[in-house]
Structure formats: structure tokens, C-alpha cells
Amino acid sequence: MPDDRYYVTDVPPETPEPADQPAPWTTTTVVGKRLPRVDGYERVSGAAVYTADVVLPDMLYAAVLRCPHAHAMVRKIDTSKAEKMPGVAAILTDKSPGADVPWFNARTGPLSRLFDPHCRYEGEEVAGVAAETPYQAWDAVRAIAVEYEVLPFVADAEDALKPGAVAIHQGGNRSGDVTRYARGDVDAGFAAADVVVEQIYSTACEIHAPTETHASVARWDGNRLVVWDSTQGVYPIQSGLVQLLKLPSSSVRVIGHYMGGGFGSKLSVSKHTVIAALLAKMTARPVKLHLTREESFLAVGNRPPDTMTLKAGVKKDGTLTALQMTVLGTGGAYPGGGVGSVDWVVRDLYTCPNVKTELTDVFINAGQARAFRAPGHPQGAWALEQMMDQLAERIGMDPVEFRLKNVPMVSQATSGTPPYSSTGLKACLEEGAKRFGWSEARKRARTEGPIRRGVGVAAGLWRGGGGGPPATIIVKLFADGSANLNMGASDLGTGTKTVMAMVVSEELGVPLEKIQIEWADTATTQYATASGGSKTVPTESPAARAAALDVKQQLLTMAAAQLKVTPEELVLKNGEIVSTADSSKKVAIAGVNALRGRGLIVGVGYRGPNPEGKVICPFGAHFAEVEVNTRTGEVKVTRFLAAQDSGRAMNELTYENQTQGGITMGLGLALTEGRILDRSQTGKMVNRNWHDYKIPTAMDVPVEQIVIPIDLHDYQANSTAAKGLGEPATVPAAPAVANAIYNACGVRTPDTPVNPLRLMGLLAASKKRG
Amino acid sequence: MPDDRYYVTDVPPETPEPADQPAPWTTTTVVGKRLPRVDGYERVSGAAVYTADVVLPDMLYAAVLRCPHAHAMVRKIDTSKAEKMPGVAAILTDKSPGADVPWFNARTGPLSRLFDPHCRYEGEEVAGVAAETPYQAWDAVRAIAVEYEVLPFVADAEDALKPGAVAIHQGGNRSGDVTRYARGDVDAGFAAADVVVEQIYSTACEIHAPTETHASVARWDGNRLVVWDSTQGVYPIQSGLVQLLKLPSSSVRVIGHYMGGGFGSKLSVSKHTVIAALLAKMTARPVKLHLTREESFLAVGNRPPDTMTLKAGVKKDGTLTALQMTVLGTGGAYPGGGVGSVDWVVRDLYTCPNVKTELTDVFINAGQARAFRAPGHPQGAWALEQMMDQLAERIGMDPVEFRLKNVPMVSQATSGTPPYSSTGLKACLEEGAKRFGWSEARKRARTEGPIRRGVGVAAGLWRGGGGGPPATIIVKLFADGSANLNMGASDLGTGTKTVMAMVVSEELGVPLEKIQIEWADTATTQYATASGGSKTVPTESPAARAAALDVKQQLLTMAAAQLKVTPEELVLKNGEIVSTADSSKKVAIAGVNALRGRGLIVGVGYRGPNPEGKVICPFGAHFAEVEVNTRTGEVKVTRFLAAQDSGRAMNELTYENQTQGGITMGLGLALTEGRILDRSQTGKMVNRNWHDYKIPTAMDVPVEQIVIPIDLHDYQANSTAAKGLGEPATVPAAPAVANAIYNACGVRTPDTPVNPLRLMGLLAASKKRG
User: Fold this and answer.
1) Full domain range(s) for residue B501
2) CATH assignment of the domain containing A548
3) Do A482 and B250 touch (CB under 8 A)?
4) Chain A partners of B486 at a C-beta cutoff of 8 Å?
5) What is the pLDDT of residues B496-510, one digit of tens each?
6) What percent of chain A has pLDDT over 90?
7) Fewer C-beta neighbours within 10 Å, C or N terminus of chain B?
8) Which CATH number does the domain housing residue B271 bear?
């Protein structure tokens, strides 16, 4: 329930909720509980059909020929040998009918083509093959003879801006204008500071690496295209295909169903999907195109690498006086937001009157960046949250205290500095520190001997996570009291289906196992925006609640007529409709004659608008304990605690799961992950597999992972009082580890990944090697 | 437009339409046009996926062991050899876990079991097998050793009532009580008549024989069952499975999609569907069970054979004074409505004050009857419409004139004799006779020589075809002006999808090719009753119209806000919303910002109730010209005209197609079709294939088939002014042919089929052989 510590004082908790919103839940019996995923059986047993599992009669398998050079021009393609290979049904090149598809970029318009002769990175698409088996398709890909003119490459953001650097696009290597933000006067701020620190930080390029690689199956029914796609949003894929293939929306059906993660790499249409669709058209047969792990490393997205110079000023009492950040990043060979949102935590995480940022994005010959879980925020937090510790040390203040002193209640970076609908950051820091045993752990730090031990804290916010319209959900209540939930949203594995069914169950009292869920299909389910940016729950759950309430209202009206009472005096409880005025007047759902007669009730729910004049942001604070082996450079995270303010915790278990995923991803950023390009010889990525590119495994995460949901019911935000969780759960994780490493061994680690090789160098340089 | 000749005088056409109904269409631009089916390409190209085409990963194929005797008791089943056959995954018998399913009959409750040891007809289910291939399943079926005790059989309805007849059920061979109906005083009526005629007629048992035989594919997702079924109604199949398998509605999803005819045999759940579901559960794999044509002849339904004694009295002026009918029929071994509705045409087709009927239904050892296109009506019409000609001849009146004299405007058999919402029978007879050239053709009859030529007329009604609630349809309008139509109704091949899309197109101006249709899926589409009884169009099209109007209203409201006008002054025309007050104020659908913002509009439509105090019936009159070869007994139908009153003709082409199908089926009833049971030796059906059981082919139907839609817009019935067409299109066809045969050669043909063997006998007996 609202706690006035976490709302700004001029927006008291009793502020009325936005108009047209149902009354807050006074208590809940399903929502908030710790419940396993409704589709757990299907996912664990193998019954769940992912896109890669879709098998259609007469289906062909496709493979893509990709440019093997970091930078090259295709001079000639000879498919004659490949055409004669066994099982080959079609070969698609830039010359094939219908394949001359201009490839759009949201910000700049067409920048290349589906198969562009100018290949700007290793892995760029050159041709596609459809054959009877995947092996035949791959054999044929290898038999296509391509004459490449290999071009000089640039594999580093700084190199890209040097005079004489090879130009990846006409107009040079700058990707868009430099992004600038300023408030107040940083020079005055630094002048007023007692301590000023400046440091360069960098984060390496991370690969999304979802469990399920990208896959599409395309089938044409006459002029209509049906695509099964591993996607975070069927409607954006539909509109992407509509735009690229010049079809009406009604002619493109996209089915999402089960999927195994996306992390931002499956938000928009990819070239492989279009290739599958065109091959299916050419052959008049269904075509499946399932990318290999290697292709997934090269060509479907990444978190861009950023180099961040951060300068900060602070007074001795802990008041921040100025923050200044310059960023150089690269989204690869195409505009992919190499620096997007990197400065948001600097702008808005802490109260600071003077802030200035400048972000430069450049092209290099590498795969294109895509939205990656909390775009920009983990990078920015890597810099800011280490800086906060550096400042705290300089002024002799506890890092938690220092952060608490600067918790904001308004969004300073938003015009008019509007209040947050709720700010749980204070609670995250306080309750996290208490549960983690922060003060005691700090005292217990072991700073001598080969195995050092230390603890670190970091905070974060996500400049999103409020969700918003449009969203439509339909709930059907069958006459036997079971129900059907119809929504267009994808369930990336996070538990969306479970949470939405819980909302329906809460309102209608239908047990979860009696709710059949249909989702992620543009033809048969309702409109939903893509699942990304921590907005699925805050966007969809109010629509689910509205749909269930619509059903309930109709049901009570039917029952009222039967019981000869008014609908207002009726409540639905345990599958029965009971009069509050006379409890003898009641009827079970299955006994409502009008419902039996009609067969079912259809309820439609929409997501209402967000409150005006407020900013909705989730917050979080992470606490890490590490052991550093100063003889090997190995870092072991022994304990981790994440306190998250994402409004109401809709399901304790999935909340915990998603936070653990965020922590794990943060550990990867901090300690192991990073794309390595061969900068000197070939420009190619050298660690394109699980062996060379390390993501944390179950062996690498701490056994003790504590998740604290602050569970602040934010009815200022929406009718289910939840904010998003996916992104904020990963933002502060990496710098919390970095700060713990410093606490353990006194070495600052400005660059990710802090792997043994790098850490040994730092320890040696600072003479702290054990 | 309403024509007051066809409404009763006390219900003038300007009577307001039922409440809550949208205004009648003043003109239409899509509805009523002659348009090909929207899914024609898919159906013709082979792209349409029928249940038999569904292929799922890891799917097994099932086959059913059926009793080879007309009547037997299973004493022992030995599956040990079959279990060891290659590819066999499971064998299901009455002893298998979960297979002890009581088999219900709607009227009587459980009468048998899924696998009942007492096999009451040849083809009754004894066991099921699932194997890797259909051939392996069939091999295993043949390897199951069953010890039968063969029982005496009864293969004839009259025999079934004889003393000492073998009892098929405990309690004897009467299937339910004798059905009796009476109004007025038939004895007084006969006394008042100038002419009284009595005749015994009979119709043979017809097999439904849809192009696509019955098929089901069952798959379990955990505890949830998904069934692809060739069905006329996914919701009745769902509720049937829910009842039989004791599952909540939310745990059973039924998908119908493409299907190739049902004619009443696919309205309710069949044993093979349950067998597929149980085998899928046993094996944890999907199972397909696709019945063979032979099984389809034996075990999934038929039109019951009826013997009808009809006595009629008439005055010389053509006034009917009395009708009396007794019927003996048999629905086979289980209650299947052996006589249901046989007397309806006698009760209600013509004005007659004194009517008495008595119908007796008995069990025999044969496959169970099921609803068959216009249950009972073609049988009754076979009797009544020949009798009408016999009476007309006796009083020297033209058959058309005689029928016109007795056209009713009220439903005499309904309590209170309420008016029909419209009666187009007069128009059918008048306009049909005119277009057919009835009088001239009668004069041209050739009654000498070996090849005789004659013409005949017959009329009919269908005591249904008004449709009614419940029905829900959802229409989505995408921001690019294309749309999605979501309805639960099946499209049996008749054009339901086409007609519903036309209604949406009419209201929203979206071209048909930009309407994507989802249908017949309990999980993803809206509630619809089964498609049968000529009620799909009158039930669903008003819901489709309401949904489209809901969309339109929302669109106009959005556009009004944008154009700063009132929604009331806006109209939607050619994809634009235009102000009627100021035509410069307009915006294209794609230009409505609020629609773009939301992505799409969702409209929900319900079917309102039918008008009180009225009866909704479609009518028809058929005219046939035949050539009879009196030396071979062959009858060639050379010309046929059907004039149908089914309210508004929604689509001229599908209207014509469906009527032609009705005519063809009537020709089969009249001339070729009839189940033949071996009454003396085995009781088994001897003509269980296309070779021995003749349905009319393209070679057997007249080249000249004229269909006249009377196109009476019956807004008294519903908001699209349409009545049903499927059943009335077949009711009068057979007796029109019989009457033409009589006109050609002077021989009455009381029994179907009038095949050469039978007709030569009649010609010989009456000495009219050529």
C-alpha cells in the first residue's frame, strides 16, 4: 500500500487515480502470490512449439550466404553450380524477382538493400537458399561462387573518426548528429564542488545470445503471408513486413507463440524473415529459416560498446554539484543507437542541478546494434555508479548514505521537472542495505591475503517501464466458469501469460488452470505493442483487468435479472454471485441461465492513458559481495541482493526469476562478456561461439541471490499499480560488482569485462597483486 | 425491397424492425453482388489445409476396428498379436484407462459406451489403434482377434415391430414415443371434401457422403486437449468433448477451419474424435484419425428411411379440407430421429384447417441416422407434393394454380397461428412458372414414343432458417484500412466467410481482399452455434453487421475529433470519412491519427433476438423437365428451375451454388440414392462405396439449371434481411422430378429411388412401357 516516503510531497498518495480507472484492489487473493508459470509444463516437457519446432507439410529449409569479410563489395554471384545441387528448390539473390527490397532504418530511411552489394560487416546477407533439408541448403550456400572486392575496414570507434579512415557510408562515419543535453551550469557546479573526479570508463560490446536463436517460418496462402516468428512483438513484425513487401496489413499474419528470449534483438523485422518469405513465394512452399548460433553472434544485434568520460563534482556534505559526460559509441555498420540513452542515469538518477552530456555515435564494420535490455542504461550506470563510489570515498561518506542523500523525487531531465508517480529508490537502498547486512559486510571486508573479499552497492533507474496505451485484451467466460484470455502480447519467457491470467483470475475467481490463453498472433489475438522496455506488464495488465471487469459487469447484470436484485448489490466470490444485501440470494456462475443460453460472455478491455504531468520509472539498488583471487585475477560473486521498485510485484516468483536474470546478465557485462574484433588483420569477430564468448552459467552466479520486491502499489501509474521490471533488474548489477572488487582489493576497474587477464594487469599496475 | 404481396396484411412492410436493430440498408454496393468465394484460390489450389491435411510433428495415425456383423456381442478381444506389430504405439479398447466413456444421446442419456460390447450395427466401434503410419494402424486393426457372438438381426422398420423380433435395446425396438399432431377435425374435413386420395410413399435411406470424410487430429498440451476436426460447429464439438472427457471448457480447444461438407453429419461429436483424443493421451503424441469412405458409409450418419401414408381431401375449387399422415421410420440402432420433422410440410406448407399426423420411430440394426439437410422435410415433401399433383389432376386444376390457391401467410402449426415474417412462396411459384415457361412446357409434354418428356412442379418450406442469438463477431480495422474478421462459425464450403466479409465490406468500405478472416476455433474466435439448419447467414450476418457498425462508430468518433465536427454529420465512403455538412472536411481512414496511434479499432457485434410473435421460414418452388426412356427406365433431367425465397440474396453466386447443390441432392434422392441392406442373409449394407451407391455426378445434372432468388428483404427477420437457404434449396427437388415423370409417362412413383429397375417395373405394371 502507498507509503508516503516514496511519493513526492506535493502528490500525496490519496491523489485520485487517472479518470476511467477502476478502483484499486483493497486486497488480492491471486495477484502478488508466488505462483509458477502457467505454461511451465509445456516449456519443460518439450511440448511447447517454438518457431524452430514448427513443421509444415512440404516445408523447405533455408540457409543464408553471408559476407565472410568485414568490408567488401560483391562484384559477381554465380549460382549455377548451387542450383544443380541435390534438393535445392530456389536461390534468392538481389537479382531475383521481388528481392530488390530497400532496407529501411527507422531514423534515416533506406540505407541499403535486402542483399546489398556493399557488404559493410562480416555476416551481411548476400544470398538465400531453400532446399529439402537444412544440410542441402547449407551445401548449396557453400557452392555459390561470389567474387568479392575486399575493402579496407575499420573496427574501432576512435579509428572511425580519424582522418583518412575508410568511409562505411557516403557522408562518412558519423551516425547521426552528436546528441547534447545540458541543464544548469556545469562549470559553476565544478567550481562550487569540494571534490572533482574525472575518469574514463568503457563497456564492451555484448551479444544478446537468447537461448532460442532467431527463426522464421513463412507460408503463403494465395496472396496472404503467414509467418511464424520468434519475436517480441507480432504486430511490429507485421507492420515491418507490410512496409517491406508492400502488402496490406490484412495480408500478413504473424504468429509468435512460444519463444526463448529476445532481450531487444527480436523487436523488429530482420532480414532472415524477409528472405524466408521471398523464398516461400518463389517456391510456393513453406520455408523455415532458423539461424545458427554463429549467425546469431554476427548479424542480429548487440549492445553497442561505449567509451564514457565522466567528470563529477561533490561537496563534502555529499551534495552533487555537477556531472559531465562525453560518450563515444558505435552501433556497428548501420544506425543502431550506439550511444542511445547512455546518459540517462547521469541525467536523472540523482539530484544534481548542473548536468551536461555529449554523445557521439560512429559507424564501424561490425554487426548492427539493437535495443539490448535497458539500452544505454547499464553502460551509463557502469560509469556513474563507480564514480559515485569514487566520490563517496573522497568525501569519506558511506556509499549507501551518499546515494540516499541524492535520491530524486522529480524527474529533473523532463521538461517542467514533474514528479515521479512513485520513487522507491530510497526504499531499495534502505531495505536492501538492511537485508544485505551492508554495514557489517563492509566491516568484514578482507583486504589482505591472496583471496580478498569486499562488498559493493549500485543503484539504477529505467527511463521507461510505465507502459501505456494502446492495448486491447479480450476475456471470454464460458458457461461452465472456465475462461479464455486473448491478448496479442508475446511472452518472452518472463511469465506474461501467467501474470495476465492472474489478473483475470483475481477479478473473476476463475482458477488459473481453467484459463486458456491465446497470445501473439496478429490474426486471432488483440493488438499489443512489442514486449520490450519493461512495458508489458504495465501496458497489458490494466487492459486484462478492464476486460475481466467488463465480463464481471455483464455476468452480474445477468445474475441480477435472474435473482431479481440490482447488479450493484452483487459480488462475485468463489465462483458464486452473491447478494450483499441478502446472502441467501446467490447463484453459481454455471447456474446463470442467460450465460448458459448465450454460451459465453465476451469482455473487451483497453489500456487507458497514463496520468498527465507525472513520470513513471522503476528503480533498483543492487548489493554484491565478491571474492577476488589476486593471484589469478578470478572474481567470484559470492552473494548478491537486488531490491527493486517496480510498483506492485504481480507474481513473487516470476518477479524473482526476472530479477535473477537481470543480475546474471549484469554479471556477464561486468566479468566475462565482450565481442572481440580482430582489429589488426581481418576486422572479423573472433569469439563467435559459446566457447570463446562467455555468458555466465549456473556455475557463475552466486548461490545466495536475494530479491526484494519493494511492492509499492503505484495506482498513480495504472490500474494494476505495477511498473516494469525487466530492464531495471539489470541496470545496477555490473557496477555493484565493480565497486565490490574495489572494496576487496582497492583496484578500480573502468573497463568491461573485468576478466582475469585484465584484472591481473590492473592488480600488477597498482601493485596489489597477491 | 419489401413487396406487400409477400407479407400478411396485418404486418405491413413498414412495421418497425425489432428494437436495437440498425437501420435497413437503403442500397448496397457489395451485399447482394455476384462475387466468387474469398477462399476460392486456397480451395482450388490445394493450399487450403483441411483436417485431413493437418500434419503435426511426431504425429501418429489411427484406425478403428469396427464390428463386421449387423448385430453381435463382443465376448473377447485379444490384442497381443497386434501390439507386437511394427509401428504400433497404442491399442485402445473398452478396458484401456480412460476409455470407459458412457455414450450419450441427447434425448435419452447414456445408451451405450464408447466401445460397447453389444454391437448393434455393422461398423460399430470395437477398438482403436495408433501407429506410425496409417497402413501399420490398419494392419494392426486386422490383427486384433475378437470373439463375437453373432446375434439375429433386424434390418427393416416393419420387421422391427413384429412380435418376436429381436430386441436391439432393452425395452424393445420403439425409439421414443409415437409423435402425434392434430388440428381441426380430419374426419369432418374428409367428409367435406369432393375428392379424397390416399397413397403410401416411401423414401430410401440416404448417406450424407460429404466430399471430405470425417477426420480428427488430437493433441494434448499437458492437460489441455487441442482437436482439429472436420465439423460444422467447433463449439458443439468442444462442449461434447467437455462432457464426455469431463474437462473444463478451457481445457478443450477445437479448430475447424477448412472443411468439405457435412450436411448434418458433422454437427456433434463422433466416437472417432474421442478415440483420437484418448489415443493421443495414451501415447503423449498427436494422433490423426481420418475415416475411410467405407466407414463414412457405415457409421457416421444418414437420412433415415421413411414410409408415409398420406390421405388428403380437397374441394373442386382447390380448397384443401384435410391432410392425414402416418409415418414409420427408423434412425437405425440408436435414437437418431428416424421420423423427426417428416410431417412439417404437411402441417404448414399449405393452408388447411384439418391436419392429423402420427409418426413412429423404431430401431433396426443399422448405422445411426443424423440430421441430414432439412431433416424430414424432403421425405415429407416427396409425399405431399406428389399428392398435391394427384389432387390437382383429380379436380382438373393446374398444379401451379392449385398450389398458389393454398399459399399460407401464417404458420398454422404454431400456437396462435402467428404471421410469417415474410412468405415468398407465392412469388416463387409465380415467378418460377413464368421464367420456366410452365404453361407452354406443359403443353409440349410428349406422352407417346419411347422417349417421353414432361414437366413437374413442387414446393417446399423449411421450418427453420430464421437463425437467432447467440452469436458474437469481432471486426478489427487496421490503421492502413485493411481489416480482420473474427467469427466462430464454420464455413462448410457454402461461402460463409465470403458472405460475412461482404457484410463487413458493405459497412466499412474495405475491399474483400483486404479482409483477413479467422474462423471456427474455440480458442481464438468468437462464439457461434453450429452451421446447420440454414441458420448460419441469418444468425451470423447480423452480428457481423453489428461489429462493423461498432467499428464504424468508433472510427467516425475519432475522425470527428480530428476534423472538429460531430460524428453524426460524418459518413464513411470509399475509404474516406467525409462531412455531409461540409465536404471539404474529410480524412482517409489511413489518415485518422487516433487510429494510427492505437494501431487498430476493435468492434464487437452480437446477434439480437428475433421478432416476437412471428415465424421466420424460407420457401421455394422447383420446376423440373425430364425425359423418360420407357424402354430402359432411364430418367434424364433436362431442365431445372429453382425459385427460392430466402429473404435477401446475400451473394448471387454463392446463392446459386448452394441452390444447385440442393437440386443435385434432390435428384439423388429422387433417382439414384438409397442404402441397401441385405435383409435376408447378413443384415449388412451391400452398397458401401461410390460404385454401388450412386450420387449424381456432373453428368447427371441438367445443363440448364436456373436459380431465381426472390430477394425479398426481410427486415422483419433480422438486420441483414436474409433467411436461410441451405435446406429449402433441396426440399422440393425430388417430388418436382417425380411429378415430371408422371407428366411424361403417366406413372406415379411413390418410392425412391426411381431407378431404371424400379421404373421399368412400374411402367410394365401400368402397361406404359415403351
Assistant:
1) 467-606
2) 3.30.365.10
3) yes
4) 524
5) 999 999 999 999 999
6) 86
7) N
8) 3.90.1170.50
